[in-house]
Amino acid sequence: MALSLATLAPAGFASAADLTIKAPKPAELPWFILIDNRVTYSYIFTAAQPGMFSIRPDGTVNAKTTKQVYSFTHFDIWRYGTNFFTISLYKSDHNDPAAPCINAGISSAFLPATCAGASEIYGLFRSTFGWNQLFNTKAFTVGPLQNISFEVGMDANTENRFFGAAKRAAVAGLQFEFALPYKGYFNVAPLVYWEFNNHNSFAQCNSGFSGPLPGVSCLSDGNTRYKPTWAVETNYYMDLGFLPENMQYFSISGRAAWYGKKGTDTEPLPVLPGNGTFNTAVEFNSEPIRLTLDASKAIWGPKWSHYVDVWVAYRYWQNKFGLDHNAPSAACSVTIGGVTRASGACTESSLYSGITVKF
Q1: Is residue 79 part of a domain?
Q2: Which residue from 25, 27, 52, 250 lies 20 to 30 Å from 348 (Cα-Cα)?
């Protein structure tokens, strides 16, 4: 946290900046100050996947699926900032099936079929370049504000669903870091977000699910290309240092992110009556709170702090992938008995738990 980034001061504060203690020159620091690698196994109890649902015997819609998640995470602090990278394998149950099924129990030929649960690999990295480090100053660490950084990053995924997602997205902007009690922090990053490539088999020409006109009612290769938009990503962490000494094994953390509208849900196809294309909505992806038990510290002492963490969290994701959960689209709604209503597949609300091991 001591190496978090700060803003350049306005010219009017130059004299005050001259009186501050200079930060260590980056050349005097080791290239990597901290390297942290972890593996995690976690379980999402009631995940959701747009377009995926089944009908229960009583006629109600089941748009929930369990997901097992296997993750590797790397974080480091280096001379000029930080790097964060994570890659995860998500394994769904049969309510979110792999290809050739297009939904639970239905093949792409609309015949009964039993397909394995889908698998998805999702990777994300974020890198920051700290103004304190770049300009060799502490002058702009003011009050609770600890730092400002340039931030860049990318997201990418691949999956074996019929949909065939192949997301490629880039972000760039700033990150503001604030201090919280008990060695905690709160980061907020206003960003430009551009999902410049993805894939949608349902919108591909000659797939049997789209119109016949390339660029108007179908995509010739199934590749979607969204418009750049805004995003705000936030995260926080804080030890529960107010607890009695013999109970100081707990911490809380969380994140929340908003992504602006990025065109139509099959961009660059336009919205046309009857072609199944709708405008996207603001996406909200969050884990408001995670309660972590530092199990290794509790068992083996402070020397082993956070080598083994056991945690439980709540996960909420509305307008998943930017798909409007209120739209009468195939991704977010279902028609039963001539009545179309939201299926719940575009909103995820779930308990989320796991174990993380540092190595």
Answers
A1: yes
A2: 250
